[in-house]
Amino acid sequence: NGRGFTVEPAGVRSPDTVRGHGLPAIRARVHQLGGTLTIESAPGEGTVLSAAIPLAPTALTALTAPEDPA
Fold it and tell me: What are phi and psi of 51, to 5 degrees?
């Protein structure tokens, strides 16, 4: 709906805030994979989550290696 939400520093929240498991779970999973999670939100502008997860060297090689024509 484009309302966005206020991003609070880790570990800080008001007593009346309902806390779910979604964002902490995403942040933990991205961190486990060696990546970063960025949250951009502004009232009236909506919210954007960006996860950057590095490819494993073997996966990168498989994606960029030329195919064997044989």
Answer: -110, 130
